[in-house]
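#lab-general

N.A. 3:47 PM
ok so I finally got the sequence cleaned up, no stray characters, all 398 residues accounted for. can someone with queue access submit it? mine expired

B.Y. 3:52 PM
send it over

N.A. 3:53 PM
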Amino acid sequence: MAHDAPQATGPSKLVIRNIGLILSGALEKPILDGDTIVAENGKITAIGRFKDLNTEGATTIVEANGTTVAPGLIDSHVHPVAGDWTPRQNQIGWIDSNLHGGVTTMISAGEVHMPGRPRDVVGLKAMAIFAQRAFWNLRPGGVKVHAGAPVIECEMVEEDFKELAAAGVKLLGEVGLGGVKDGPTARKMVGWARKYGIQSTIHTGGPSIPGSGLIDKDVVLEADTDVVGHINGGHTALPDDQIRCICEGCKRGLEIVHNGNERSALFTLRIAREMGDLHRVILGTDAPAGSGVQPLGILRMVSMLSSLGDLPAEIAFCLATGNTARMRQLDCGLIEVGRSADFVIMDKAQHSPGKTILESVQLGDLPGIGMTIIDGIVRTQRSRNTPPAGRVPEVVAK
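B.Y. 4:20 PM
back already:
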């Protein structure tokens, strides 16, 4: 298992050729015309036809063999603790295993499973800064984990948020998992966080872990966090009328998670579509949790929303890539020049009744992953977790 994944030691040039389908991650144009992608020093530099691009001097050539290239998937809601270990399930290697499910970036919603997690202001700030630093320095399997998300407590003052931001903290853990559970206090602290460039998420629905509690529509709307965390519950969802009220009452991100209520997830998707607000929908797993670790959780969400939500597969992939990247202000998640060269290469699973990868996903099947690439470096080849793909890419020169 790779903990501290290798980085490029000199100038690099990646060429992915003979691509069958390029999924952009962007709702406005989810499919790109082209069969080749070029990336230099970890950034995408060209997308188009092989004959039109400068592919000379490649340090790595990937023969896609007609497979599909998409942006690396982003899990908008995880709970890391230390390295690639989760005390919630006493499991090692969960992040690396998610990489085999196509996830190349993760966003912490709070390191809440830390044994003995401090609740005092000094302690919670220290833990957030530690987590931010630790995951900045360590990338399990190459996965980018954006961590250091403090759970706010009632004793905090504006200066605490200023100090956290100055130390590099850019996220708040789920509002409602700590002592702050009322709308007015939450709104005040979310405002302080926003003032200093810290993005916020709120717990939505019934309690999940000891210390959490019911967060209903009134608290969610008054708190006005940047992301409505697990709007479909983590695990217990709010009633439909409250979910609709949240969707219609704010313009913030609507996060749907694997560890939530699937019916409520589909209801949220339907409301967002009716409102013309699909760009607000992002996906997470809310793992590790009591229901375990889900290495294929994001892929399963894409397939479920596409098949049961009657959403074109190429659009469903946008919810797990470009939507999250734009909302979370990340430089990955979209296949466009200047973005990080983070890709998942996949094909329809063997024996799927779908004729194409998009048709198979819309029928509810998971694709087979043949390769993941982060910052232009091949991290994994055939996934140990997905079904085998009909076709697989291969590295032909390095």
